[in-house]
């Protein structure tokens, strides 16, 4: 395939309700949507999940726009690519900026699958026809409010509940949910809000029978997480500390955790996500697919990658209606019990809702 043109958009998709983590509160999903056109007319779509501010990693939306349009795409366009993996040697001189690279890699995979008349899951090597989902809940105002929100999602069919925590809104909040729902799969996501000095509080979470504590310590850290994991019965799941296959190797060597949340955007695309889950599976590390409050485009890619055998735990791939009144794909992603069905259509498997995409676009550029 040879990419001959591209179209990039800044998109603001309103959230149904604000979503709060330990570091921000969001009222809309702000991202970039990338559309690549190959020489035979096949079109592929990807998303850069970089936020407005670089609070999750070093990337931010305006910077991602500049990097994609002025650095990444000029290296990739009008080059013969046999496979989506081939893009990486063309951008090897650009360090990190994985969300920007992921937008291109995912769009290339969409084109690659369509050209072979395969679903994206098939092109990636996936075997599942449905993937199990969980739901992610932002920080709530009180333990009682958190219990109420969790109850609603359990009634909707979710079996695994992830709750965001931060200092002052942690043990008592999760304990209230555990008391109400003694048998539900629960996990806590700290988004790097704690330090080793907080070990005694984190050890209290061992009493709540959580399936994991996600990224309790600093982003990028592997050493302190290893020290913490040695003191906890609860498994640590790494998120921001695993951004590459090499990070996963170091995690295993140091025993920094027992689970990886593989976010396609964070690691630089479907190609790298596939490599990490293979390595993790070979080394006894469980994995699941995390999200970035994704639009339907990125969510469709997440469904496809989660069909690989290394994804062993319920994924953060909630129904579109969990976050959005209106998404930019059709049909929107819906639950089938506690699962999401894998689309049988070629490529991403979903059509673009042009009306919504145009309505949510605040800036666009053809390349």
Automatic annotation (TrEMBL):
Q: Entry's PANTHER family? A: O-SUCCINYLBENZOATE SYNTHASE, O-SUCCINYLBENZOATE SYNTHASE-RELATED
Mandelate racemase/muconate lactonizing enzyme C-terminal domain location is 143-235
Protein name per the record: o-succinylbenzoate synthase
SMART domains according to UniProt: MR_MLE
Q: Which UniProt keywords apply?
A: Lyase, Magnesium, Metal-binding
Q: Which cofactor does it need?
A: a divalent metal cation
Q: Which organism is it from?
A: Pediococcus cellicola
Database matches in InterPro entries: Enolase-like_C_sf, Enolase-like_N, Enolase_C-like, Mandelate_racemase_C, Mandelate_racemase_N_dom, OSBS/NAAAR
């Amino acid at each position: 395939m040879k990419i001959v043109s591209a179209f990039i958009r800044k998109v603001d998709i309103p959230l149904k309700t604000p979503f709060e983590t330990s570091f921000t509160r969001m009222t809309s999903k702000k991202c970039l949507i990338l559309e690549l056109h190959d020489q035979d007319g096949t079109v592929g779509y990807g998303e850069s999940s970089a936020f407005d501010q670089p609070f999750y990693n070093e990337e931010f939306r305006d910077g991602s726009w500049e990097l994609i349009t002025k650095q990444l795409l000029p290296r990739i366009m009008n080059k013969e690519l046999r496979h989506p993996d081939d893009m990486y040697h063309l951008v090897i001189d650009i360090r990190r900026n994985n969300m920007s690279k992921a937008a291109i890699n995912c769009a290339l995979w969409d084109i690659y699958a369509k050209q072979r008349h395969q679903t994206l899951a098939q092109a990636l090597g996936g075997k599942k026809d449905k993937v199990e989902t969980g739901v992610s809940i932002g920080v709530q105002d009180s333990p009682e409010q958190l219990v109420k929100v969790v109850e609603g999602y359990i009634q909707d069919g979710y079996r695994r509940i992830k709750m965001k925590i931060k200092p002052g809104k942690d043990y008592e909040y999760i304990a209230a949910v555990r008391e109400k729902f003694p048998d539900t799969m629960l996990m806590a996501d700290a988004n790097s809000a704690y330090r080793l000095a907080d070990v005694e509080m984190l050890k209290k979470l061992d009493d709540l029978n959580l399936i994991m504590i996600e990224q309790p310590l600093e982003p990028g850290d592997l050493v302190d997480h290893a020290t913490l994991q040695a003191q906890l019965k609860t498994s640590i799941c790494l998120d921001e500390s695993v951004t590459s296959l090499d990070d996963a190797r170091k995690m295993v060597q140091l025993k920094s955790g027992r689970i990886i949340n593989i976010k396609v955007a964070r690691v630089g695309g479907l190609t790298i996500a596939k490599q990490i889950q293979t390595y993790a599976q070979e080394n006894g590390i469980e994995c699941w697919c995390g999200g970035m409050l994704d639009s339907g485009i990125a969510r469709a890619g997440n469904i496809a990658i989660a069909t690989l055998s290394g994804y062993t735990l319920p994924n953060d791939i909630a129904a579109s209606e969990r976050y959005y009144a209106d998404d930019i794909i059709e049909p929107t992603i819906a639950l089938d019990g506690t699962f999401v069905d894998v689309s049988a259509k070629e490529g991403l498997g979903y059509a673009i809702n042009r009306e919504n995409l145009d309505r949510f676009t605040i800036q666009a550029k053809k390349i």
